[in-house]
Amino acid sequence: MKSFLTLRVVRIGVVLAAAFLLAVPAAAAADRYVALGDSFSSGVGTGSYALSSSCKRSVYAYPYLLSQQRAGTSLVFVACSGAKTSDLMASQLPSVDTTTNIVTVTIGGNDIGFADLIYQCTVSDCSAALDTTRSSLESILGARLDTVYGAIKGHAAFDAKIVVLGYPRMFNSSSCFSAFGISATERTKANQLSDALDQTIAAHAATAGVVYKSAISAFSTHPLCSSSPWLNGLNLFNSGESYHPNKSGQSLGYLPLIRAVTG
User: Fold this and answer.
1) Which residues pair with 102 in a beta bridge?
2) Is 39 designated active site?
3) At what angle do helices 114-123 and 184-208 cross, to 10 degrees?
4) Which of 39, 81, 178, 214 is catalytic?
5) CATH number of the domain that 48 lies in?
6) Domain of residue 247, residue span
7) What is the spatial distance between Cα 32 and Cα 48, in angstroms, rounded to a whole number?
8) In terms of C-beta density within 10 A (0-12 exposed, 13-18 middle, 19 or more buried), how is residue 68 classed?
9) In a domain, 51, yes or no
10) SS3 69
């Protein structure tokens, strides 16, 4: 009788232990996050590039901020200032593999020479160049974006969260030193180009089946010449910092867009 009771107690203990183990959720696997793209992803404009002086990668850029805020997130930060779609394919894409379950990217601005266009506006009339670029967006970027997005999907985990980020409008209707040399007409046409670029990227992201987060609305009340700009204006002493998101643009503009997708 005693042995029977002992055996029964042991069996009950085993059952309870198994139930307890089933009730305790397994530890979440670490996320492997690869940040691709150009200067808007590397953090140009934040003034500090401790992570890479050559690619201008910053601890104030949204990829690094995201990795610090999300527990268990391992960051592979390969976004690089000046990158075009061809650079991403050649030197950044190999970092994406089947263990990668988060990917972010801004790309396309350098393919159309957006920064050069804005610099041109400060020294001469850029209106015609802005119009020409806007009308040529699809022919310049369409196939390139399809190639990039398709390659990312093909390399990443099948259920990876792939987030394409857009570019903001630079200007409002006001004039100030930050927009030195850029006329009201040029500011309007530069914003029209930003809107058209936003629509082009959004369309190709949708076709590829990846998430697109526009930056137009997020930055709408914080352009150059506003009371609290999230973008740098003309910097005569360091032109590379000009017309890029500052620390607030990264942390308050771009980061929430990513967090809305990744948590």
Assistant:
1) 33, 161
2) yes
3) 180
4) 39
5) 3.40.50.1110
6) 31-262
7) 25
8) exposed
9) yes
10) helix
Nearest to 117 by CA among 100, 132, 136: 132
Q: Give the bridge partners for 32, in sequence order.
A: 74
Two tokens, residue 61? 């850029």
First to last CA, the chain: 57
**Catalytic annotation, pick one of 3, 222, 244, 251:** 244
Q: Are 163 and 211 in contact (CB under 8 A)?
A: yes
Provide the 8-state DSSP code for 71: T
Encoded tokens for 71 = 């527990």
Q: What is the value of pTM for the model shown? A: 0.88
- Could you tell me whether strands 161-165 and 102-106 are parallel, antiparallel, or unpaired per DSSP bridges? parallel
217 part of the active site: no
pLDDT digits (tens, 9 = 90+) for 5-51: 444 544 544 444 444 445 444 445 689 999 999 999 999 999 999 99
* pLDDT (tens digit per residue) in 67-118: 999 999 999 999 999 999 999 999 999 999 999 999 999 999 999 999 889 8
Domain tally for the chain? 1
Q: Is residue 181 domain-resident?
A: yes
d(CA 87, CA 70): 28
Residue 180 tokens read as: 């030195």
Q: Where are the beta strands (DSSP E) in 50-209?
A: 73-77, 102-106, 161-165
Q: How far apart are CA 168 and CA 118, in angstroms?
A: 14
pLDDT > 70 in the chain, percent: 89
DSSP 23-45: HSPPPPPPEEEEEEESHHHHTTT
